[in-house]
Amino acid sequence: MCRIVLSIIPLVLVMSCKENAPTILSIDPPVALPGEVVTIRGDSFGSEQNDSFITLDSNPPISSAYLAWTDNHIQFRVPEIGRSGLVFVYKDGKKSNPSLFAYADTIPQRAVEESGFMEPQIHSLEPSISAVGSTMTILGSGFGTLREGGMVLFPSAADPSGQQWIEASTGGADYTLWSDREIQVMVPDGAASGNLELRTAWGNAAPVRFTLDRTLGDKVFSKRQSYIISYTVDIQVRSAKAPNVLYLWVPVPVAAASQPHVELLSLNTDPFVENYQGTKLFRFSDLASSDTKSITLSYLVTTYTVQTAIKTQAIPENAAVYMPVSPPTALIPSQDQRVSALARSLVGQERNPYVKAQKLYEWLIKTITLPVPARNRTVFEALDEQKTEAYSASLLFCALARSTGIQAIPITGVLVDKNRDVFVHHWAEFWIDGFGWISVDPALGAGAAPAYFDLPSDNAAYYFGSIDSRRIIFSRGELNHTVLDPRGRRTRQAHDYALQNYWEEAAGELEAYSSLWSDIQIIGVYNE
Questions:
Q1: Which strand (E) or helix (H) includes residue 514?
Q2: CA angle, corner 375, sides to 370 and 378, nearest 5?
Q3: In a domain? residue 17
């Protein structure tokens, strides 16, 4: 018997260490023009490119075409010369499954009838009643075999009049299938019952009635605020010679249920990549000594106060069916033994995910240091010192929640006080199946607010489940940017208004330069 056990164990160890072949899950967009950026998402690509590569119709792009390479994310620029065909990812001699990519100028035009283009038509929604986070199937015709910028617009809970919609990809929801007769899409957070719209490159379908499953309760939207904001990045080159390159990842406001409308008003410099992992990516090449560069952005952002009316007893025990729990990271060490042990001691035998999150929040607000401190602690520093502030409290809440099986993400942005002064702030959201994202602000719950920021009288209870409209979101979750040049020198803007690892990267003969990232400026405020 002992010999059998010993012979099995090495076999298991060898099998467990076997490296998986890369897997392609999606290509976005699947149709593009030469020079456009394409994203491949999947698994087991490797944390760095090294000798790995992709092929497009059996031909690998040149090395400079690659913009990003992580274990589940590859970005490349479409070669100027090439043909439509199958895309494969190669890593350590292993070949992925194929996925189809097409050059846009080779796609035949859609057939036209005498009356014009075939307009899309929605025949049915399945199921007829859907909850937030669940996958809904839209059946019909004329949707187009490729999405090509098409979108599903749900009625927004923020606008009972039915004049505003929330796009299906808002707040972590997304499309899982798009074909000419069927679309599968996740119902986004912030959706409500009302008329659903489908807009495609071929036209818009007639609206159909969508019914939201409200078994778990409602979100109430009020106190709409519209902010006009502006911010800049100024670069002064001190010593440089060609060749060189400077990359800047500039955060932008993001769409969410509480922040459904984000509109770019002005931009003085065209970005290198319009939407790069939640930022605008700018690139300046071959800078010379004494050169100056400036980037100025202006946005209109609409926010709402959101209050939750949730039926706690109706919540299912498993909170991660629609939204899986994110893996641990350096900032959010959810599987660390100390974090897990603390989470278990705080939630005890509780199985309801909402109640578990509430217990974690109540413990956190007792540890917040007042007044708001200048130093931001890591999760481990917060545990060692038994002191937290907005930054570490948001990360610690997410780590504790994830360790108990609840998906939670850190939110980073700014607070706006009654004098229109702006303060960097951190809070969090956790997910409940069938209800959506729920806001948690431990710092404001503990009363750690700027001097001229008016807190509600019941701030401890209010900031578990509700959020005010006097804030602007710049990142939901961590923005982990991939190194663009292995020899580059990267800069972090520690704990600023977006939670991202890198903000600048300089490569080549750019020997010395200075950068000035301005605070967010409030140009106008409109209360409605």
A1: strand 504-517
A2: 100
A3: no
Q: How many helices (H) and strands (E) does the chain have?
A: 7, 33
75: β partners: 39, 68
Calculate mean pLDDT across residues 447-455: 92
- Residue 39 maps to which CATH number? 2.60.40.10
DSSP element (H, E) containing 432: strand 422-432
- Do 34 and 79 lie in one domain? The reply is yes
Q: Which two tokens stand for residue 255?
A: 């769409």
Domain around 340: 316-475
Q: Which residue has the tokens 């189809």?
A: 100
At residue 8's C-alpha, the angle toward residues 5 and 12, to 5°, is: 135
| pLDDT band with cut points at 50, 70 and 90 for residue 10 | very low
Q: What is the DSSP annotation of 347-399?
A: HTT---HHHHHHHHHHHHHTTB-SS--SSPPPHHHHHHHT-B-HHHHHHHHHH
Please report where in the chains the tokens 């490349």 appear, as a residue.
Answer: 76
Same domain? 283 vs 421 = no
Q: Is residue 332 a contact partner of residue 489, using CB atoms and an 8 Å limit?
A: no
Q: Residue 510 pLDDT more than 60?
A: yes
Residue 431 near residue 354, CB atoms below 8 Å: no
User: Residue 2's pLDDT is what?
Assistant: 32
